[in-house]
Design brief:
This protein is α/β, with parallel strands linked by helices. It contains two helices and three strands, in the order βαβαβ. The protein has a three-stranded parallel sheet, with helices on one face. Helix 2 links the parallel strand 2 and strand 3. The protein is flat and about 35 Å long.
Length: about 60
């Protein structure tokens, strides 16, 4: 496991609010990006990301409905 902390950005919003444009901007900034991540999978994904140590910056779109 890496000692480096993961920087996590969660993007959410209504339909047409620009979530996809926002996540594309984070991708341009070097973030690993995920669109439409189910909220129930976020904790396990972060656990796996921390174990791998390959990714320190993550941005994801999460539907909070």
């Amino acid at each position: 496991m890496s000692d480096e902390q993961i920087k996590l950005v969660i993007v959410t919003g209504m339909s047409g609010a620009g979530k996809t444009v926002a996540i594309q901007s984070f991708e341009d900034l070097g973030y690993f990006t995920i669109d439409n991540m189910p909220p129930t999978l976020v904790p396990k994904f972060l656990e796996l990301a921390a174990q791998s140590g390959d990714t320190s910056k993550i941005a994801m779109v999460v539907d909070m409905r």
